C-alpha cells in the first residue's frame, strides 16, 4: 500500500490536540487527500501515527466541517476501477481559513 502520510511529512504534522489554543486563522492544512473519482477531500491539520487518526477539514461533497477521521479506513477504501484515496503530491500547506473559503466558493458557484 502507498502511505497517505509519508515519513518526510510526519514531522511537519502536529499531534492530535497539539494545536488546541492556536487561533483558528493560524491552523494549517498540511496534507490534502482526495477521492480521484469523487468530491470527497480531507485536509490533515493534526495526526496521531499510532492510532492512524487525523484531525482536519473534511468535505464529503456538501457540508464541509472540522473533524477526526481514520487514515486506516481511508487507505482501505476500495473505489471503482481499483482506485484508492490519494494524497495530492503537489499540495503546499495552506491556512485553514483559505481552504475553507475555497470550498465555500465552490458551492456558491454550483448553486
Summarize the structure.
This protein is α+β, with helices and mostly antiparallel strands. The chain has helices spanning 7-10, 71-76, 96-110; strands at 28-29, 31-34, 41-48, 53-59, 65-70, 86-87, 94-95.
Verbal overview:
By secondary structure, this protein is α+β, with helices and mostly antiparallel strands. It contains three helices and seven strands, in the order H-E-E-E-E-E-H-E-E-H. The protein is 23% helix and 28% strand. A hairpin with a 5-residue loop joins strand 4 and strand 5 (65-70).
Question: Which descriptors would you attach to this protein?
Answer:
alpha+beta, 5-stranded antiparallel sheet, 111 residues
What's the arrangement of secondary structure elements?
Blueprint: H1 7-10, E1 28-29, E2 31-34, E3 41-48, E4 53-59, E5 65-70, H2 71-76, E6 86-87, E7 94-95, H3 96-110
Antiparallel strand pairs: 1-7, 2-3, 2-6, 3-4, 4-5
The amount of helix comes to 10-25%
Number of helices: 3
Shape: globular
Query: H/E element string?
Result: HEEEEEHEEH
Radius of gyration: 14 Å
Amino acid at each position: 500500500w502507498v502511505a497517505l502520510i509519508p515519513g518526510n511529512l510526519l514531522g511537519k504534522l502536529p499531534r492530535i490536540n497539539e494545536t488546541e489554543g492556536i487561533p483558528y486563522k493560524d491552523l494549517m492544512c498540511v496534507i490534502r487527500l482526495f477521492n480521484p473519482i469523487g468530491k470527497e477531500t480531507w485536509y490533515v491539520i493534526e495526526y496521531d501515527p499510532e492510532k492512524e487518526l487525523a484531525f482536519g477539514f473534511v468535505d464529503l461533497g456538501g457540508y464541509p466541517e472540522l473533524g477526526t477521521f481514520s487514515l486506516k479506513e481511508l487507505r482501505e477504501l476500495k473505489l471503482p476501477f481499483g482506485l484508492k484515496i490519494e494524497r495530492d503530491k503537489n499540495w503546499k500547506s495552506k491556512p485553514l481559513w483559505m481552504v475553507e473559503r475555497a470550498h465555500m466558493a465552490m458551492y456558491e458557484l454550483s448553486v
